[in-house]
Amino acid sequence: MHELAIGKSILRLAVDRATAAGRTRVTAIDLVVGELRNLEAPTLQRYFDHISAGSIAEGAVLRVTRAPARFTCATCGEPSPAIVCGPCGGAPCTLVGGREMLVERLEVA
Ligand SMILES: [Zn+2]
Hints:
The chain is α+β, with helices and mostly antiparallel strands. The chain has one domain: hypothetical protein PF0899 fold (2-Layer Sandwich), CATH 3.30.2320.50. The chain is 28% helix and 30% strand. The chain has helices spanning 2-20, 41-51, and strands spanning 26-34, 61-67, 70-72, 79-80, 94-97, 101-108. The strands form two sheets. The chain has a three-stranded mixed beta sheet. A three-stranded antiparallel beta sheet has the order 4-3-5, with no helix packed on it. It starts with a helix and ends with a strand. The structure holds zinc ion.
């Protein structure tokens, strides 16, 4: 259900942008999805195929790039890949990336 809601947002955005640009076909959509988002790319594609049927984005391929989780340490200010700071051991670090869900690029015809 989660993927269905995301699929609907992606479809709406893709159709809006392509239409605004005077395009009549969306062939691929590049997405950036944070690794902390619980998202199944094949499930998303399956839902998308279903809800995009009959639209200008019918048959578009979703290409998902996962973005890694990123933190910033509240103690020393250094970036850290984990909740406990690598350089100084401070915790908890502040989450600054890894939950994004972005439409990065559309391929249109
Ligand atoms: Zn630190």
